[in-house]
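hey m, so remember when u said the tokens were messed up on ur end? i reran from scratch. heres the input so u can diff it against urs
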Amino acid sequence: MGKGCYMLKIAYDPIYAFQLPEGHRFPMLKYELIPQQLLHEGLITAENLFSPGGKIDEATILLTHEKAYWEQLRDLTISAKDARRIGFPMSARLIERSATISKGTVVACHHAFENKVAFNAAGGTHHAGTNWGEGFCMLNDQAIAANYLLANNLASSILIVDLDVHQGNGTAQIFERESRVFTFSMHGANNFPFRKEHSDLDIPLPDHMADDEYLSILYDTLPKLIAQSKPDFIFYLAGVDVLATDKLGKFDLTKQACKARDRFVFEQCIKNNIPVQVSMGGGYSPNVRDIVDAHCNTYRVAVDLYF
């Protein structure tokens, strides 16, 4: 990391890898394995990891989520129907995890201002709207952080680049009337969520999208969006459920294309001198090694370009 005085900072807390009851299908293991792999490779040291420092405060949550919805989560009074929509068995520990992840994204923004880029080793909970959760998302970490930046006059124009295979429907709904935040989602047209919201720019893609076409669309689109919206901060949701190996993805992308995607996003941020916060998003390949390796590629590219 010799390209300057900057340091890669990554939000991580052991609660990220909180284990759900036996037999639940959503994998938490990757949240523990990603930092371990980066440490094993010598790409980072313990100095690069920072604890979010506890849960996000309620006042910051309420910049984004409705009070009644947050209180139902906090007090575990959410209905069985709404809990099923989220997809998790509710518990106080799970709500603490979500609030800690959101805090990690907010703190990572401050590190991004200092170091040009910063990560949350979890996050990307883009299906949570103002008053609902779904798809394993309860609090929308990047939306919370974006509203935090706006409320504290730390940014005046924000671009959210969501390249998870699933549309960022919650993020789109939260910012549908907020002109200072431009939401961009490039996702599978025939994938969850089946009721889409309206991002400022949606690019729905067909099943079996392959490397060259996917990258061509991104290469053509992102520079224009940056020129148009003139952001002073970017949030990047770097889901790896675009991989051909992903059991929920429906795309045919290779790890090499996923890595090229990450490189291009970072190159555009560097070219335009825009700080970027990265949350990891989805990844559901049957072999956890594929998930971890693809996520670690995002860090590898960042270290190569920034440090």
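this time it looks ok to me. DSSP finds ten helices and eight strands in the chain. if urs says something different then somethings off w ur setup not the seq
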